[in-house]
Amino acid sequence: MTAVPQFQSLLQRLNERAEHDEENKQLLEQLLTENEEMRQQNLAIDMENQRMRHTLDLDSKRHKELQRAEDQFSDVYDWICDCRLLSDVSKQGWRVEFSESFLAGLDEEGHSLLLSDKAWSSTDGKGTPHAVCWQGAVVAVLGLYDKGKTFVLNELTESKLPSGKKVSTKGLSFKHVEVDGGTRFILLDSEGSYSPVKVTDELSVVEKEATELFLQELIFELSDYFLCVVNDFTSLDQRYLDKLTRRLQNSTKVFREVIVVHNCKEVIDQETLEHVWASQVTGIYARGTMQSTKVAAEEPLSGELVEKSVSWFKTPFSRHVLLANHDSDLGEALNPWAFSLLRYWLKSVFVPVDQSLSVVDAVVHYSNLKLAKHFKAHPQLALIPSEEPNVRYIRTCSNCPEQLRLHQVMVDASGIMLARPDAYLPPVDIVKEADGTYAIYMDVPGMTREDIKLSRTNVVTIVKGAREPDFTEREFATTVTRQERKHGDFTMTFRIPEEYQRKWSECTVESGVLCIRYERDHDEEET
Q: 154 with 163: CB under 8 angstroms?
């Protein structure tokens, strides 16, 4: 009988222990859950701290850059040609300033490639420079004013060039870099087109426009490859790009595509970015295709190397890449890989070009060639030493500086500069004739068929010619009191509709009218 109470007592203790164990188990699970929640919160706090430190580091970096921009602006670029106005060449000249640290780091070969210091063929400013052969390329970063060109250069080369609204690039600014394998690249930055003008008299705007036109021409001659930076892709940007691509197609340059960087610096969300991409890029180019390239870049927060696919858009004459606001989460997830793609192109798509002049000599030489079209007399520019060892001046050697007067430029309604008044641009009629042919009529008074050169690239016909002036430069300067008839070189391109043959069937010049005729392409007709 005594065993029954003992058994019941044991059973009761076991039940109590089981209840106690269950309570401990629940308490342990609660503690583990709370611990996991605290761990997640700590991770989130750590991530936010990293992001805040990253943002503060960026702000501090930019603040330091802006602080030193004024005092050390010329030292962050390797050298600068400060071309503010064309007429300055007949006064103090354009200041060419070299970074002391850059010059100190050059060996003898590097110095000769930058600046030959050898005598030209003549000392009157009309000669040609001493030939220096080297392999490399000049990469121009172009675009309208305040579009972020210097920012793109910084990210592309991991440099610390001053950028932002508080600083502006002077004239032509050069940065020398080397990519894998030792290929020399010279990055060319500029103030940008349509920058603000300091108005001192009624000709200030005109001379500024003429200077910008000259710099565009000079940059085109100096450069082998072109990056164009835009924000919102407006019709003005589009015309600027169209003018550049047309000129490239008519040139002999090795690489004839323009890389367009859409710097959407105000966009911070994916939906807006996709809308911009569709409305300003893919939606406006009918003959383009989406491409994707896998590249690796450093993840901003973790510092780890991560591989991603970057989408870009290719047209027959351009490549388009997209950037977002650099300080946003979207920008951190997109921009490093976009710049990695640009660097990949810089290394693999671009090829070094055989250069025949030292870089500074090329600036002086091409300035002479281009300014001869802007002034009434040959500018006779030369590189003049100064008392400062790292400063020289590009200045005229002419004994008649008063003849270095500017022609005004023609500007259309949108502000795009078309040509100087003395440039000849033939008027054109395009007619679909009743006999089924396609005809281009062009007024070319005083010219013969031998003066006209025709070529074609796929469906594009290129017409080149030159109408010579009736007076010499001396006569223009001394005896001509009024000059309205146009003369000079011209190049025009025409895209021939697909229903016509790409090659013209007839080209004649009669009574001062050029006629180019195309037969219908029966292979293109629907059956």
A: yes
Both structure tokens of 337: 């890989």
pLDDT band at 197 (very low <50, low <70, confident <90, very high): low
Q: Is the pLDDT of residue 59 over 70?
A: no
Nearest to 268 by CA among 309, 340, 335, 327: 327
C-alpha torsion 115→116→120→124, nearest 10: 30
Compute CA distances 515 → 20, 179, 443, 464, whole Å. Answer: 105, 50, 9, 14
Domain made up of 428-524: CATH architecture: Sandwich (2.60)
pLDDT range class, residue 516, cuts 50, 70, 90: very high
Which carries the bigger pLDDT value, residue 18 or residue 215? 215
**How far is the CA of 394 from the CAs of 83, 274, 378, 397, in angstroms?**
9, 47, 14, 10
Q: What span, in angstroms and rounded, lies between the C-alpha atoms of 336 and 146? A: 21
Q: With contact defined as beta carbons under 8 Å apart, do 461 and 428 qualify? A: no
- Residues of the chain with pLDDT > 90, as a percent, come to 16
Find tokens 């997640």 and name the residue. Answer: 40
Q: Are 378 and 372 in contact (CB under 8 A)?
A: yes
pLDDT at residue 193 greater than cutoff 60: no
| H or E element at residue 310 | strand 305-314
Beta strands in 315-459 (DSSP E): 318-323, 353-355, 381-385, 391-396, 410-411, 417-419, 428-432, 438-443, 452-457
pLDDT in tens, 428-483: 999 999 999 999 999 999 889 998 999 887 778 888 888 877 776 556 556 767 66
> 134-195+203-356 sits in which CATH class?
alpha beta
User: End-to-end CA distance of the chain, in Å?
Assistant: 113
Q: How far apart are CA 157 and CA 163, in angstroms?
A: 14
According to DSSP, the residues that pair with 500 across neighbouring strands are: 520
Give me the residues paired with residue 383 across strands: 394
Query: Residue 256, Cβ neighbours under 10 Å: how many?
Result: 18
Beta bridge partners of 380: none
Query: What does the DSSP 8-state code read for residue 131?
Result: P
Enumerate the domain spans of the chain.
20-72, 134-195+203-356, 428-524
Instruction: Give DSSP secondary structure letters for 25-57.
Output: HHHHHHHHHHHHHHHHHHHHHHHHHHHHHHHHH
Question: 379 in helix, strand or coil?
Answer: coil
